[in-house]
Structures are given as C-alpha cells and as structure tokens.
Specification:
Helices cover 34% and strands 0% of the residues. It is mainly alpha-helical. The protein is built from 2 helices and no strands. The chain has a domain at 5-49. The chain is globular and about 45 Å long.
Amino acid sequence: MSTHPDYRRKGLARSLILHALYRLRERGVTHVSISTAERNRRARPLYEKLGFQLVKTLPRYRKQT
C-alpha cells in the first residue's frame, strides 16, 4: 500500500487496513500477515498500533551487477 505524499499522516492507510481486516474477519479469516521492506521504517509503527508484531526479518540479497 502506498499513500500519495499530499495525503499522508491523515489516517487513510489505517482506515484502509482496518476496513480490510474487518472484511477478512467477516469471511472467517483468523490469521493475517503483512510483509514490508525493512527499510520502510514508517510503516512499522502503524502496523504495531493495529496489533501486528514483528516476527522476523529476512536478509536482503542483491545480485552484483
């Protein structure tokens, strides 16, 4: 998910995630996971406020060019 810079810090991402979680719960989904790049440090506080917790980080591999 990405939010246009003009609309960040207004609760839009939070609202979208909460709505998605509500709809998933309606359908009987009991487990949800979120993946994000480790460098995306702005997202982590949002996810934690919504009840998600960091389970693990994965190393980043990049092919040398």
